[in-house]
Amino acid sequence: MIRALALDIDGTITDDQRLLHPRAVEAVGRLNSRTTVILVSGNVHCFTRAAAVLLGTSRTFIAENGGVISWGEGEMELLSDPAICQEAYRRLKEVYPLAKKDSRYRITDLVVESNFEIQEAESRLRGWGLEADLVDSGFAVHIKDRKVDKGRALAKVMDRLGLSQEEVAAVGDSISDLPMFRVAGFRAAVANGVPELKAKADYVSGEEFGPGFCEIVDYMVAEEMI
Length: 226
Prior knowledge:
alpha/beta
């Protein structure tokens, strides 16, 4: 039985313009009465907290691709070293025309526009010996501490909440969701998800974005997983 569902936001319960899909909001409401929904987002902490409040999900959530865990109402844990991201940004900006996004609100990682060759930039980071990774969420590129990802943060949450792998489901759409697929017992991807994620999913929806998430919830209910 699934006791907790780790849920990505952008591209999973939104539409292609990053607007919350009304049907997906209703589906999250259905889940809230059946299991614990833990938001796991690449977005900033304040955004993810606001989403948790508005959606009525757990106040324990993960933001900034695993860089921040919010434990309930009063405790925040940082898993990332922001200095690593800042140095990677400084070095890359000497080569590429990087433009920051959301920088005023970010605590651990940095986000830049997708206006450069990511694989080439990653090769440069390795050559410079920097412990930073680049993650393309489909909406922007995240510069993050290499030791941090959604899966490691989710495993930490699972350990603290006493959840086994078989008791956790994960739903997402992007390559940044792949690490949490490695620690969840049931993995589902929406149809608009990247091929690498869908290849590891136990279930892939027929529909894209928010409607696809609704389909996943229906499947889990029908299979008596929740």
